[in-house]
Amino acid sequence: MDNKYSYAYLGLAVMIALLFIQFIIGIFINLYVSFPPLNSISHIAPAAFPSNYIIVMLHMMLGFLILIVSFIMLLLSIKIQNSKMVISSGISFVFVIVAGISGFLFLFNEYNVYSLIMAVSFIIIIISEFYYLYTLKLLTGAPSKN
Length: 146
Prior knowledge:
This protein is mainly alpha-helical and 146 residues long. The chain is built from 4 helices and no strands.
């Protein structure tokens, strides 16, 4: 198997693992972390941050890591020169950005619609990644069960 295909499999495994960790952390934040209102003067004070703010920072850093991995997967798809993989990884990349913007907006007002957009983005990204895997299996020849 060519190196670019093994990198694609590795990137897929990393992406899917990061996405599931990110989703679980996001649910935790949505259920158990509340942010101070922006119109309050205490919002500026360090004491205004939630006691479990570290989990929010972890969620944000994982989001940036997912963005980087999805961009690398897009570049790798372009190098492999398979239009289905390019479209699939492009969709993933776009919806990672959509989820990130929604998460940023959720920090400021905690509107449920932003949480919903993040969840729907997660579903679209996962479907796109599994389609990428399916296309990659077709391209490299799925191993037989004989």
